Amino acid sequence: MTAQKTLLQNAYETTLAQAVTASGSDVTLVVNAAPNGSPSASVPMYLVVDPDSDASREYVKVTSNSGVNLTVTRNIDTVSGALNAHAIGAKVRMVAMKQHFDDLNERVDKIINDDGSAVVTTGVVKDEDDMTSNSATHLATQQSIKAYVDAQVGTQEEVEDVVGGMLDGDETFITVAYDDTDGNIDFTVPVKDEDDMTSNSNTHLATQQSIKAYVDDIAQTAEEVQDIVGAMFSGNTETRVTVTYDDSDGTIDVVVDDLNTDTQLTTEQVQDIVGAMFSSNTETRIAATYEDGDGTIDLVVDDMTANTQLTTEEVQDIVGGMLTGNTETRISVTYEDGDGTIDFVVDDLNTDTQLTTEQVQDIVGAMFSGNTETRISASYEDGDGTIDLVVDDMTADTNTQLSTEEVQDIVGAMFTGNTETNITVTYEDSDGTIDLVATGNTTEQIQDIVGAMFSSNTETGITATYEDSDGTIDLVVSGVDATQIVDADGDTKIQVEEASDEDKIRFDTAGTERAVMNSTLALTTNGGLFQHNQTQAGTFTIASTEGTVVAGPITITGTVTNAGTMVILWVR
User: Fold this and answer.
1) Strand pairing category for 493-495 and 484-486
2) Segments in 112-141 forming alpha helices (H)
3) 193 versus 106: which is more confidently predicted?
């Protein structure tokens, strides 16, 4: 159970308006009468369904309610009831139940000592500076909260040590050192300034000066380029051609041997063929000239140090050509070759490309002229560029308005000659009114019809009599006394009014009063005792938030796990 307030309503009983199946732990019960009053209509509360049937009895807990719709948790007492099906008309009753007293005792156990002397703080408040227990069911003292928080907040030295430790480790191209004496962190970037980059380090950065010096040192001179190219020709294996690199002037001489034999081309033919292969070709940074007079080909490699970039004039002419002769909209572009500039001139946007005031007036005027307007005339005055709008007289009596008489005749005709049921409609043309007269059944006819619906029917536990003289129906429930619930032989009963306005519930069995309940439940001298005698064979767990009272004797053959409170009452 839980330490909760559960509600009771005296003599609340109703019946099911909808059947309930024997399935579903949380369902909605639809009853014929809602709990009422305050706090009786509130939740939670406990009810019994089919209370008089040992086979179908079921105890439920109402967790929320909306009128006659009660949301319940079913079969809360598996020992005294079961999850059963219940038909329409099954009784639903509120009685004093074990769960009410369990809830009440649980609330008392949570806040009062056994002797009722003082508030129990043990198990409610903890004073742990380290909060080791990490309890979700206890409060903490201010002192323990302060001690715990203070212990978690680091000093400046502790923060410095934590941050310093986060930075001490492996970094790339940077060294980080935490100085614990002053709490500072030193960052050092490894840099080398070597013009020849001898160390070839992969863990240091190079300065701009050392990079420039190294690149300038390995750049090739014209002589070095000539020697490299000359070495590519010298010592190679050539067929019927001799190649000589002349280092003095940086040229390469190519000489084809004498092919003047009967089966070979003449020297002149070979010279012309080879010469043609060199002439008019596209060479990059080398000039080839065939000298037909002496049959030689002159190859001249240009100065590799020369400026191969376009001149300023060449760049200007290229860019100027890209802008000259294009199609531009409302902008003119002129390339001035003399000073290498490009002139951009945006035309006057306020030119004839814009509509004049007169043109705009004529366009808008035409939009009004010749249109179909209703009860408004539009005139475009071209002389002053204005549009005159004139709304006609809305109060004028025109043919478009119906007169009062015309309206009355139209509406009257809509009523006259129609088919109406239980109503007569008459249009009075003289005064323009419509008379409506209902022609339904009389009061007596209605009473006789309803009375006949009750008479001669088959009713169970109720008698219905139609009194034609006064038009009433008398309903009498058979065998029901509003003050008591009694068995067939009358010796076992629950009474709520043994005496006038007694406000007590009395419980009788076998003709003897056993208990009386008003604000408390009291057993009479003949009431006997609360008895409990069972065998606990299965698994039973008492949660940390629950308490259980067991009246012995009890035999435990299964497993009982007690995480909350368990009280066993057993007097031998």
Assistant:
1) antiparallel
2) none
3) 193
